[in-house]
Design brief:
Elements lengths: L3 E5 L2 E7 L13 H6 L4 H4 L13 E7 L5 E7 L3 E6 L4 E7 L4 E6 L7 E5 L3 E5 L4 E6 L4 E7 L4 E6 L3 E6 L4 E7 L6 E6 L6 E5 L4 E5 L4 E6 L19 E6 L5 E6 L3 E6 L7 E4 L8 E5 L14 E5 L4 E5 L5 E5 L5 E6 L5 E6 L5 E4 L13 H7 L12 E5 H7 L11 E3 L2 E5 H11 L3 H21 L11 H19 L3 H27 L5 H4 L10 H6 L2 H28 L13
Antiparallel strand pairs: 1-2, 2-29, 3-4, 4-5, 5-6, 7-8, 8-9, 9-10, 11-12, 12-13, 13-14, 15-16, 16-17, 17-18, 19-20, 20-21, 21-22, 23-24, 24-25, 25-26, 27-28, 28-29, 30-32, 31-32
Helix pairs in contact: 7-8, 7-11
Length: about 575
């Protein structure tokens, strides 16, 4: 088994687990079949970064706990929650729910406390043993965030209100009223100064101060070329993703048009706009700070990870240049980055949660330190085919090399109409059969050089080549014949020829022009290997004696004309030279 690797922008991305590498066993497979699979080489060499890292049908959301020791994920079918332990690289437990998950948050440092927003308007609170409490919200939810200072869970959805559930007091608080007319898609809380950010369906971002619970600003992103098709004004897109940077000054905004905009909170204009090129809504946007030990030629080594349902792109914050990209085989639902490492988890429409390792992004996490050596050892390399060290020869060539007595021995491998012979044996036999092959080649090269020098001294007026002169002359006559008919003003002759003969002549002239002027056929008149042997039996069978006589007569006349021209040129003095083959080059 080898690891699948892609090399976008000279950045290697290793697929360490996923649908292309892991073979899943159905739940109904009996133990007897499991024992039989122990003899399956592909099954025994399979790769599983984390055991049972997936769901029966598809995975929806996944997050790494703040302590970095666990991964919590939700998926279908049936709707369930699974927690994976990195220390044991295996699933810790799974828990089924009544509805599919929209999004969830981990409230504690580990997995023991979490809140889940379901698609049936319910909000579930889970502890380490069971579902602790369930409540319903007035509208269908789309996203949620947690404000740790006030213990408020912020829920946004198909309403202009932001619902607040205080888990310390155990009751709903007064909702926040936004300016959105259709709904709120995303909610975020800044880790630096606890500023609320709400991305609306109207294409605006509202910022709220949690201390005064008042709106302090509205950001209206503008993208050139994207307008509202109805009103023709600014808009035409929604805010679908959002993320704060830890410095408290920067925010990334993803839109439904497939654009990512980077803002400084002190300015109203974006200082970086990136297009995903697919026109699909942005599902995930994350700030990725430069990991310790990772190299970056830029001053600000931070990167932005933006993902839609088709592709994941990592690009530079300062320059906007793409660092690398990942295109899974299935649609993407969520992307999670392992902090301070080069490992990415992708939840999508596949049974397995796919894992990608990018060494240039960061080192492998401590619990998967073996990835550093595993990726290099099992990297997908071009394999040498079995026939690279063999030469295919036919029986006639074997006889010329004196190897026909080896037919039937293990040295010759019969294949189709010939044999495969070891390349070293072939080279040695060829050197023994023709020890003067190099000398002949050297003499031929010397003759070619002398011929080129001889032709450069005198320019011949004839434009016929040295190879296949008869063919070239016949093609030229076909060209001239059509021109003569086209230039003729004799109506009687045109009538006598008739339309059929004229069309035939035009076709022949076009064919002749294509052969003479097309560079693909220049070797016919330059390379002696393409010389037509008119004395061969095949040529005599295809051409009647009358046609052969005409060709010979035309060739003789051409030779006479060329010799007379050569004599005339020698008598007139020095004339600028031109090679015969330049006409067909």
């Amino acid at each position: 088994m080898v690891l699948e690797v892609t090399n976008t922008n000279n950045v290697k991305v290793y697929t360490v687990s996923g649908s292309s590498l892991t073979r899943k066993l159905p739940d109904w497979l009996v133990k007897r079949k499991r024992r039989e699979l122990q003899k399956d080489i592909e099954w025994t060499r399979r790769i599983e970064l984390i055991q049972d890292f997936g769901f029966p049908e598809a995975s929806l959301r996944l997050k790494v706990t703040p302590d970095g020791q666990y991964c919590m994920a939700t998926g279908v079918y049936k709707p369930q929650i699974r927690v994976f332990d990195f220390a044991n690289v295996a699933m810790k437990f799974d828990r089924h729910t009544d509805a599919e998950n929209v999004n969830f948050l981990v409230l504690s440092d580990d997995w023991t406390k979490s809140v889940h927003l379901q698609n049936d308007r319910s909000l579930e609170f889970h502890n380490e043993g069971q579902m602790h409490f369930r409540t319903r919200i007035p509208r269908f939810g789309r996203d949620l965030a947690y404000h740790s200072s006030s213990c408020d869970v912020l829920v946004v959805g198909a309403s202009s209100e932001v619902f607040r559930v205080n888990i310390d007091q155990g009751r709903f608080m007064t909702p926040l009223q936004t300016q959105s007319t259709e709904g709120v898609n995303v909610a975020r809380v800044s880790p630096a100064h606890q500023l609320f950010g709400f991305g609306t369906q109207d294409g605006t971002v509202e910022f709220w101060d949690p201390r005064a619970r008042n709106r302090i600003g509205v950001l209206e992103p503008e993208i050139s070329g994207i307008m509202d098709p109805i009103s023709g004004t600014r808009g035409g897109f929604e805010i679908t993703a959002m993320d704060y940077r830890n410095d408290g000054l920067s925010v990334a905004v993803g839109t439904s048009s497939g654009h990512v905009l980077l803002y400084d909170l002190r300015q109203s204009r974006p200082w970086q706009i990136k297009d995903q090129q697919y026109g699909l809504p942005i599902k995930t946007v994350k700030w990725m700070e430069q990991a310790q030990g990772a190299y970056s030629p830029e001053v600000d080594g931070a990167k932005i990870m933006s993902a839609d349902s088709r592709i994941i792109k990592l690009w530079s914050v300062s320059s906007g240049k793409v660092f690398t990209s990942i295109e899974p085989n299935n649609d993407i639902n969520d992307v999670c980055h392992m902090p301070n490492s080069g490992l990415l988890f992708v939840a999508g429409e596949s049974a397995e949660i796919q894992s990608y390792f990018i060494p240039q992004l960061g080192p492998a996490p401590a619990w998967a330190h073996f990835l550093e050596n595993l990726t290099e050892e099992m990297e997908q390399k071009p394999q040498q085919t079995i026939y690279d060290d063999y030469k295919f020869v036919v029986r006639r060539e074997l006889e010329s090399l004196g190897l026909s007595h080896l037919i039937g021995s293990p040295v010759l491998k019969p294949y189709m109409h010939g044999f495969f012979v070891d390349l070293r044996l072939y080279e040695r036999a060829k050197a023994i059969a023709n020890p003067f092959a190099y000398d002949d080649y050297r003499m031929q090269r010397v003759q070619d050089k002398l011929q080129e020098a001889r032709e450069s001294r005198i320019r011949a007026t004839t434009k016929l080549p040295k190879v296949n002169r008869s063919l070239a002359m016949r093609l030229m006559q076909m060209q001239k014949g059509e021109k003569g008919r086209a230039d003729s003003d004799d109506d009687e002759e045109q009538k006598r020829l008739g339309g059929r003969q004229r069309r035939k002549a035009q076709v022949q002239a076009a064919t002749a022009t294509a052969v003479l002027e097309d560079s693909r056929f220049k070797d016919i008149f330059n390379n002696p290997d393409f010389e037509v042997d008119e004395d061969a039996d095949e040529f005599k069978q295809l051409h009647t004696p009358f046609k052969k006589m005409k060709l010979q007569g035309a060739k003789a006349r051409a030779d006479d004309d060329s010799s007379e021209d050569d004599v005339g040129i020698r008598n007139t003095g020095d004339v600028e030279d031109e090679s015969d083959t330049e006409f067909f080059a």
